[in-house]
Amino acid sequence: MTLQHSGGIAALLCGATYVAGFALLVTLLAPLGYGTEEIDTHAVAALAAAHPGLLIAWNSTIYIINGLALAVLTVALAERFLPRAPGWSGVSRALGLIWATLVLGAGMVANVAVERTSALHATDPQGAADLWGTLHAIELGLGGGNEIVGGAWILSISIAGLAFRRLPRGVALMGLLTGLAGLATLVPALGTAAGAGFGLGGIAWFLAVGVALVRDPGPPASHQPK
């Protein structure tokens, strides 16, 4: 299996983790206000105490698995652009690996938050809620509450994909819109709507990139025109 094929599978996996994340977010976690500014920290702390395995599995899916797959995809896409655009290849590799690191960090903080909250809740429910709220804020700062680095990475990939024809035009255009939505999370007034747009656009983009890489891994680097 080539790196391009592996990158395609990694992209499909990234899209799948987004789908899984949204599925739990709009069902079990929706009544708790999860993902909004109205989140009920006491209810989340109680859920963490009652079902820590569920939240750890969710965090591990949307952060840990996603971050590891993202690292593979980043390297695969950087290699894809290297012969024709070494500069863009380097930029995209740097942004993608930074994003993967932040995603993994957010996941580790989120899982520690569940573990510590679950252990504290039986003796100090208020303290458990406060602790979870604090650690959740750190999680959001790393990558759960803004998509600036992810937006910049997808934008850089999409620009290079259009300019150097290394991605289908429709996929690259979709990536431009998704990347801009990610950058828009920097604006507080647009944060929630832009984050939703980035997440939904990200699902479609990752899946489309995965299909493109699996179907057309491209010629060997040494045979690509400069």
How many structural domains are formed by the residues? Answer: 1
Q: How many angstroms separate the termini?
A: 25 Å
Which descriptor suits the 3D outline? Answer: elongated
The string of secondary-structure elements, in order, is HHHHHHHH
Rg computed from alpha carbons, rounded to a whole number of angstroms: 19 Å
Which class best fits the helix and strand makeup?
mainly alpha
**pLDDT < 50 stretches:** 220-226
Give the proportion of residues in helices: over 70%
Number of strands: 0
Report on the biggest sheet: none
Number of distinct helices: 8
Average the pLDDT over all residues and give the rounded result: 89
Proportion of residues in β-strands? under 5%
